[in-house]
């Protein structure tokens, strides 16, 4: 039987964006089979000439990062000053399914190609816009950079990350661009799913600020509303965490009480087990722990940590990533054998659906715009049934826990799917433990984290390790379209719930598996938490001060994995819609992470440049940094900062004017980016002295209207006070029957076709829908009572083996 074409092979996507975010959005679509035509101005996308290390790109060649992001795309040139060219662009759009748009390209800035104008002229199109703040709200036209957006989002402080005696640091590697592009791809596929039924497109409005707020913090506003205190207090360096071994760096994590006891045994300090306070406060033990790590090799520590089942990973970077044994075994990287550069393989694997075979990026203008436009009106007729919500009628069995899995299924639930969150009374979702003390009544219903990520879902408790529970699970699988799970790999296999077994129950089932390190390879069974994924992918390597050990971001490894898994699920659903076949998806967390750190491996393999952490400095701006202000926070601390980034000479001149043209700032040597970069230390000293006596709001009010990218370094739980997030209704109040009312995050992509409100129902109580779901499967009240009596279902945690 011939192979089916890639899921999006009938799609035509026009990309008029510039930069990483739009390029990654359309790359995901191109990998899924879409015909992506990149329409560029005569000079081309500036990304063609970009190298994060500053490597010289020979004339007539394109940079390696551009070639990675533009793989399998076509290139056509349009001069926005020529009416004929713009008419050809519109002829191309008339036959397209979607357009990816961002500010910055002269083509995209043409009045007829702005999102609202596109929507009016081409109502069938999905117009995916990716901007710093979104298309509306009081900040929509304010200057911003990745760095200042991380500050506004709360992501620079994150989950209390960093040495309290040093300035807080941002997460390195322009992660906001990659995350926003990922949400753009998901939003595009969601919109086209709805358009299949309606024949009508819409605007998908992606905000980078909201993408960072969702992925770099852990539902802090919901947490403070529900419990009256922030999730984290004073900034700190996690102990144990990143460590320097005899021959390299490795990280070992402790996330549970049992893991702490096991760690104490591993490092030969059994007396630490007797002091229960050390599980919460152990920073003072760092010298002893550091000495133990320094006395062992990386491989010795890996073997010991694996034996004690402790989360661990090598601190990976652009030089060693492709050569780590696990990535070599899984062929996680491609290229390099022909003298070209090394780059990550796609972040997920599907069968029998398949991704597109990668083709080289097109040189600028390789395809004549007139020729491309002439054959554009060939969209397949739309077919299927629509609904008010994109996933209306889709039934999902959510066998996930913690953050990565539930964030994937949460988007489905917010957009109309019936999502059944499976737990058991002996093993409830671990996020239920993150909240009120266990001494409070119904403590398991009071977790703001569980609430923040599980609204609109139903809850079924079922112990499928029993024969009775397994029989019920089989009956349930027959009724669902999709199963998503993020257990360790052996759980489903030991239960006999393979893709082949599930297809015997439902032939067109879509199974999404989200293992931390994949279903094969030497790290397959290693424990995977957000921080271990960050360690193993290079995210940790680029974060922190250069004179200290790197810092684990401690957050985005989970949501990044969940949204990549959702992208793969959407491709699988499109394949099923077109062929009627079920699809197996493997969406390993680490594969998602190495894709958003692709620049590190690409720079090293293409130019021999190892990208390294630089505190708060970066390759796109100088000066760039955080500067202390005179504010005192609600706890009486002076840990208050502003973030500032100057990317252009014009922004520098605006800064100089706004601070009163002091003599040091009018030095002609600082008029160029190269001069400012060479004098960065001196500039920082002067800016620090200027900011120190001022409040952060005063600094922002002086600099931002003048055109300088600046931001307060926001504590995460203050996100809800930001005027931009309030104007865009990023938070919605949800009333919970046990924990009360609290603001809940929505999504960083707005669909102009609605819904206006995303949270329709509070997160489910444990086992709240047992009777409803089991009755629909044909079980009688007597049957259900028997399951309850046997402990197979229930509505409160039981001791068991949690």
Label this structure with key terms:
7-stranded mixed β-sheet; 802 residues; single chain; alpha/beta
How would you sum up this structure in a few lines?
With 802 residues, the chain is of the alpha/beta class.
Q: In words, what does this structure look like?
A:
This protein is 34% helix and 13% strand. α14 links the parallel β13 and β14. Strands 3-2-1-4-5-6-24 form a 7-stranded mixed sheet, with helices on both faces. Strands 12-18-17-16-13-14-15 form a 7-stranded mixed sheet, covered by helices on one side. Strands 7-8-9 form a 3-stranded antiparallel sheet, with helices on both faces. The protein has 29 helices and 24 strands. α14 packs across α20 and α19 packs across α21. About 1% of the residues have low confidence. The protein is α/β, with parallel strands linked by helices and 802 residues long.
């Amino acid at each position: 039987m011939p192979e089916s074409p890639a899921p999006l092979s009938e799609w035509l996507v026009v990309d008029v964006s510039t930069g990483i975010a739009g390029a990654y959005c359309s790359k995901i679509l191109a990998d899924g089979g879409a015909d992506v035509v990149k329409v560029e101005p005569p000079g081309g996308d500036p990304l063609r000439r970009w190298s994060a290390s500053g490597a010289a790109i020979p004339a007539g060649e394109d940079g390696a990062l551009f070639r990675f992001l533009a793989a399998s795309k076509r290139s056509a040139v349009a001069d926005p000053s020529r009416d004929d060219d713009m008419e050809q662009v519109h002829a191309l759009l008339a036959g397209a399914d979607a357009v990816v748009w961002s500010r910055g390209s002269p083509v995209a800035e043409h009045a007829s190609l702005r999102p609202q104008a596109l929507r009016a002229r081409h109502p069938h199109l999905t117009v995916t816009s990716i901007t710093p703040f979104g298309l509306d709200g009081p900040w929509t036209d304010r200057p911003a950079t990745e760095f200042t957006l991380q500050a506004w989002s709360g992501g620079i402080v994150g989950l209390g990350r960093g040495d309290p005696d040093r300035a807080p640091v941002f997460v390195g590697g322009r992660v906001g661009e990659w995350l926003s592009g990922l949400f753009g791809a998901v939003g595009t596929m969601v919109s086209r799913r709805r358009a299949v039924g309606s024949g009508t497109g819409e605007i998908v409005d992606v905000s980078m600020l909201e993408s960072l707020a969702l992925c770099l913090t852990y539902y802090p506003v919901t947490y403070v509303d529900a419990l009256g205190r922030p999730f984290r207090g004073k900034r700190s360096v996690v102990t144990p965490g990143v460590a320097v071994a005899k021959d390299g760096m490795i990280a070992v994590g402790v996330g549970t009480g049992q893991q702490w006891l096991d760690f104490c045994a591993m490092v030969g300090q059994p007396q630490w087990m007797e002091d229960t306070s050390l599980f919460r406060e152990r920073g003072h033990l760092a010298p002893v722990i550091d000495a133990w790590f320094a006395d062992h090799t990386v491989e010795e520590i890996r073997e010991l940590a694996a034996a004690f089942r402790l989360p661990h990973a090598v601190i990976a970077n652009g030089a060693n990533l492709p050569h780590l044994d696990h990535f070599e075994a899984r062929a996680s990287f491609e290229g390099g054998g022909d003298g070209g550069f090394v780059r990550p393989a796609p972040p997920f694997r599907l069968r029998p659906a398949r991704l597109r075979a990668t083709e080289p990026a097109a040189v600028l203008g390789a395809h004549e715009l007139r020729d491309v436009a002439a054959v554009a009106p060939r969209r397949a007729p739309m077919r299927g049934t629509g609904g008010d919500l994109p996933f209306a009628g889709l039934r999902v069995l959510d066998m996930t826990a913690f953050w990565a899995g539930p964030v994937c299924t949460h988007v489905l639930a917010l957009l109309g799917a019936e999502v059944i969150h499976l737990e058991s009374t002996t093993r409830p979702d671990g996020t239920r433990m993150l909240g009120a003390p266990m001494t409070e009544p119904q403590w398991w219903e009071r977790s703001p984290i569980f609430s923040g990520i599980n609204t609109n879902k139903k809850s079924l408790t079922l112990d499928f390790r029993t024969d009775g529970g397994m029989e019920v699970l089989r009956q349930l699988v027959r009724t669902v379209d999709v199963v998503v799970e993020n257990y360790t790999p052996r759980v489903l296999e030991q239960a006999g719930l393979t893709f082949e077994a599930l297809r015997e129950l439902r032939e067109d089932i879509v199974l999404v598996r989200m293992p931390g390190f994949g279903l094969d390879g030497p790290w397959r069974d290693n424990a995977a938490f957000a921080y271990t994924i960050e360690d193993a992918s290079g995210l940790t390597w680029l974060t922190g001060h250069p004179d200290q050990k790197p810092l684990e971001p401690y957050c985005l490894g989970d949501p990044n994995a969940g949204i990549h898994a959702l992208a793969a699920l959407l491709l699988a659903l499109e394949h099923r819609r077109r062929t009627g076949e079920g699809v197996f998806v493997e969406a390993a967390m680490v594969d998602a992470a190495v894709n958003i750190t692709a620049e590190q491996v690409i720079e090293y393999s293409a130019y021999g440049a190892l990208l390294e952490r630089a505190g708060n400095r970066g390759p796109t701006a100088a000066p760039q940094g955080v500067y202390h202000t005179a504010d005192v926070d609600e706890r009486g601390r002076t840990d208050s900062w502003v973030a500032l980034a100057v990317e252009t000479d014009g922004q520098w001149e605006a800064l100089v004017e706004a601070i009163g043209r002091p003599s040091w700032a009018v030095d002609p040597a600082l008029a160029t980016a190269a001069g400012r970069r060479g004098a960065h230390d001196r500039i920082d000293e002067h800016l620090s002295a200027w900011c120190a006596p001022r409040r952060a709001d005063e600094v922002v009010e002086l600099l931002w209207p003048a055109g300088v990218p600046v931001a307060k370094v926001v504590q995460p739980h203050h996100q809800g006070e930001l005027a931009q997030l309030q104007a865009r209704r990023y938070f919605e109040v949800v009333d919970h029957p046990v924990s009360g009312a609290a603001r809940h995050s929505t999504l960083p992509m707005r669909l102009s076709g609605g819904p206006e409100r995303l949270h329709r129902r509070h997160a489910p109580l444990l086992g709240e829908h047992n009777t409803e779901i089991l009755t629909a499967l044909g079980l009688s009240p007597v049957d259900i009572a028997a399951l309850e009596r046997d402990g197979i279902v229930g509505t409160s945690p039981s001791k068991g083996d949690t």
